[in-house]
Q: What sequence folds into this?
């Protein structure tokens, strides 16, 4: 094991390198490009075997990724934001083929207006595709999750593609100390891929991804995809235990922080969960029983684990760094539905913040806890609560007036 | 957008924007007064600023002390012949101010650049540059690392509810007759497009092509260039089917 100072992007590339991938179809996009740049260099310098191929678009790239996985190769690819959307059709298609591959998405807000920094509308748009989704908080977790993603994707009773998500800028371009495990140790956890259901072999020709007509066949295949996702909940936990045994780092479906006796709880995901933890710590220092649940696996959605950890709390705020126009925060809806059947439901608050990489500031996190106290005592709280400050509104009005827009509210 | 490094012995529970920097490094002094960059945001009264200044320029910046100034660009070019070595110079100065020993700074430069540079000589010239900076900065006082214990005073944010506004405001469009009316990109111009009206057939192609929206049409539908914002890309001259734009060397933008 060596300890290196790696960006989230470099950690993702190291995950692919340690997984000893066979095939890397690539297309650049900010803030992901560093991943494929590193991999292309390693392939050129023979640090990594396998083929590195550039494509004309993310749609072609993902098509090649899925097709290569269907031949039995271990495939890694990466994209972000508009790129993920450009390849969108293929996400559903590849998942339907039931072929394992790992796609790293570096989250970036979607157009329009076009922007560069992180929010999760890109990756969450893919939540119904059939890809498993693992969302990461630290650079170490990025590397570890790529390894765990391959192990899961290739499991005999799973065979699903996996997206590992990391936040653009806040993680992709942030360097942290990362333990890079020895390849031999990785091999213990992740042996080479022995395809047994999708491959090319001269003595066993097959057709994959066949067309079906008549809903009964279609229903069967699609529902199997759902059942495989639900089954993955168990498999992820078992494999995480094994990973912990080998590497000493533990990852679950969700992460609980200061949750033992917590009354006021933040539900967050990805890199800004770290800031949520700092806020919890500040409140604890003041004697408030605060806690945080970090959503790590978003598909399959760990409804039972979430309901179990949130039931009985006084109030829970689900902080979404995404926005579904017309309803609000996306994970809020899912957490609320997980809690619907639970006894002793907490007051539930929806918060939307950090859109387009806007900082979720310490004062904003304080405000959320104030809302939680209000909600716990039965007062109403705006839903969703948008994290947007008066100073930001003043700056926005100024920008609009420079842009020649009349009026101000 | 900014780059940053956080150094601590304990776990760092902070992400993204740095709210209270212990040291601010400004690689380009012209950014100091630039509201969009605001490199000094979050600076407390005693936060030191490391400022890369142009020794040739008469510009006088009023940055309150403590400020450490040097022409790192000139040092970098003198040592390595490359502008890109400015990063090395600034990293060395920041290391010095952070209290890192020169040998640790050298090890860092070695680790960062060994795989990037074409030759050992280039690496050596970067290490020599770092040494020059350490020598220059030998009497600078290292940064006093702030004690973060006063974080419990974080107060609630002043949040506002956004109300519904009409699409003419709420769509990301710019009605001002220039993409960046508050920034006079006119001084970027090396060449000036000058209309010769008798050649113009009023096809408006220049108006459509101008990426800066610097061209408006007058009451007779002739194009008029706003030289405050025209950045001199010459797309208009290139696209004009009748060569109605004369291109002049810019002398006074
Ligand atoms: S040179 Fe022509 S096209 Fe370019 S900014 Fe100026 S007016 Fe517009
Ligand atoms: S493109 Fe040339 S001819 Fe057409 S309006 Fe502009 S200056 Fe006149």
A:
């Amino acid at each position: 094991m060596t300890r290196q100072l790696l960006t989230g992007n470099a950690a993702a590339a190291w995950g692919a390198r340690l997984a000893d991938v066979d095939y890397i179809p690539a297309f650049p996009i900010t803030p992901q490009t560093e991943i494929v740049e590193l991999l292309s260099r390693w392939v050129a310098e023979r640090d990594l075997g396998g083929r590195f191929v550039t494509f004309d678009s993310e749609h072609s790239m993902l098509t090649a990724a899925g097709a290569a996985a269907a031949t039995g190769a271990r495939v890694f690819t990466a994209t972000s934001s508009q790129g993920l959307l450009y390849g969108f059709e293929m996400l559903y298609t590849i998942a339907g083929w039931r072929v394992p591959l790992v796609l790293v998405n570096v989250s970036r807000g979607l157009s329009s207006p076009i922007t560069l920094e992180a929010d999760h509308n890109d990756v969450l748009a893919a939540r119904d595709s059939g890809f498993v989704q693992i969302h990461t908080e630290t650079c170490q977790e990025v590397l570890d999750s790529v390894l765990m993603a391959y192990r899961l994707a290739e499991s005999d009773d799973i065979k699903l593609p996996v997206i590992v998500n990391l936040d653009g800028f806040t993680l992709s371009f942030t360097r942290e100390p990362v333990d890079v495990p020895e390849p031999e140790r990785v091999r213990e956890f992740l042996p080479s891929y022995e395809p047994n259901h999708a491959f090319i072999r001269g003595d066993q020709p097959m057709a994959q991804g066949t067309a079906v007509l008549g809903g009964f066949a279609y229903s069967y295949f699609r529902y199997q995809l759902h059942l495989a996702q639900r089954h993955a909940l168990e498999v992820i936990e078992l494999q995480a235990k094994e990973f912990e045994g080998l590497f000493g780092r533990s990852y679950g479906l969700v992460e609980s922080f200061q949750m033992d006796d917590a009354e006021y709880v933040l539900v967050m995901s990805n890199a800004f969960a770290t800031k949520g933890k700092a806020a919890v710590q500040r409140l604890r220092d003041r004697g408030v029983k605060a806690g945080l649940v970090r959503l790590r696996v978003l598909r399959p959605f760990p409804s039972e684990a979430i309901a179990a950890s949130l039931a009985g709390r006084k109030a829970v705020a689900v902080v979404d760094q995404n926005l579904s126009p017309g309803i609000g925060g996306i994970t809020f809806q899912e957490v609320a539905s997980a809690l619907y059947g639970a006894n002793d439901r907490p007051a539930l608050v929806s918060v939307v913040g950090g859109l387009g990489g806007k900082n979720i500031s310490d004062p904003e996190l304080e405000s959320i806890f104030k809302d939680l106290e209000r909600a716990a005592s039965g007062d109403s709280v705006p839903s969703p609560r948008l994290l947007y400050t008066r100073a930001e509104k003043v700056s926005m009005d100024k920008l609009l007036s420079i842009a020649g827009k009349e009026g101000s509210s | 957008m900014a780059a940053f490094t956080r150094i601590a012995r304990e776990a760092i529970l902070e992400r993204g924007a740095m709210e209270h920097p212990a040291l601010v490094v400004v690689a380009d002094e012209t950014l100091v007064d630039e509201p969009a960059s605001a490199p000094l945001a979050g600076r407390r009264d005693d936060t030191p600023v490391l400022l890369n200044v142009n020794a040739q320029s008469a510009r006088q910046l009023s940055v309150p002390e403590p400020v450490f100034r040097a022409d790192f660009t000139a040092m970098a070019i003198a040592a390595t012949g490359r502008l890109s070595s400015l990063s090395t110079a600034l990293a060395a100065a920041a290391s010095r101010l952070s209290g890192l020993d020169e040998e640790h700074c050298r090890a860092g430069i070695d680790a960062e650049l060994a795989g990037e540079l074409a030759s050992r000589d280039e690496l050596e010239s970067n290490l020599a540059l770092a040494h020059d900076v350490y020598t220059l900065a030998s009497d600078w006082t290292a940064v006093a690392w702030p004690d973060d214990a006063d974080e419990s005073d974080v107060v609630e944010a002043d949040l506002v509810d956004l109300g519904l506004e009409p699409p003419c405001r709420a769509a990301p469009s710019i009605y001002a007759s220039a993409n960046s009316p508050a920034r006079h990109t006119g001084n970027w111009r090396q060449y000036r497009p000058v209309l010769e009206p008798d050649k113009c057939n009023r096809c408006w192609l220049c108006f459509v092509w101008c990426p800066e929206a610097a061209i408006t049409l007058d009451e007779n539908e002739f194009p008029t260039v706003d030289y405050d914002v025209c950045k001199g890309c010459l797309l208009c001259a290139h696209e004009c089917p009748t060569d109605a734009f004369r291109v002049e060397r810019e002398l006074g933008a």
